[in-house]
Specification:
- The protein is an alpha/beta fold.
- The protein contains 8 helices and 8 strands.
- It has an 8-stranded mixed β-sheet, covered by helices on one side.
- Helix 6 packs parallel to helix 8.
Amino acid sequence: MTRPEGADTSPPGGVISSWDISVGVDGPGTRFVVFTCGCPLRCLYCQNPETWRMRDGRRVTADEVMAEVERYRRFITVAGGGVTISGGEPLLQPGFTAELLRRCRDDGLHTALDTSGFLGDRATDAMLADTDLVLLDIKSSDPATYRALTGGELEPTLRFARRLAALGRPTWVRFVLVPGVTDDPENVDGIARFVAGLGNVEHVDVLPFHRMAAGKYRRLGLTFPLAHVDPPGPELLDQVHARFRAHGVVSL
């Protein structure tokens, strides 16, 4: 029987696009980042279109991933880092994601989960207990803007954020600043007010939109929807940071 697209494939294994080493972007320190495949959203600014569909990835076992992590263990621990499960959307494969987080935590490695929160209901409390840090993308505070930007609904992400706050899980919120799309002052203020009321968010990462993935889209035969949009300038970035500060929210 064929599994439906988007079905959980784990345990005993999962489907990934790749893994990589990053510094200061996917959590504290130097990170070993696992990019899982499959995502229910289609964000207009997505930088990883190669991870959208599970059938385009490769199947691996948790043992294979952990063996690769072990190769870099000394390097990432000395650099104050750890392991981040990203995507795609890791919560599309909750069993596999939970197993990786648990095994990394058992091995004494700092763990991070990078998620849109759209499938937050799939994260068990046990999974979140094994997660030292959640990187939560709050793409907009306005439901209509969120829908136009992602094709999905905003409320699941907000519900997941409230749950993380109730559990006291450390969280970094990520917000991509796209001129003409997410930069409306009311939208920024809405995110700032929401974050300010949570109590568990250490800071907001304001990520300037860029077009560096345009080449990926061309190679995949896809059209990059925001190819005509210029990155935000310093003045707009300063304005957005000032709005977060006005609500008592630290933004980087």
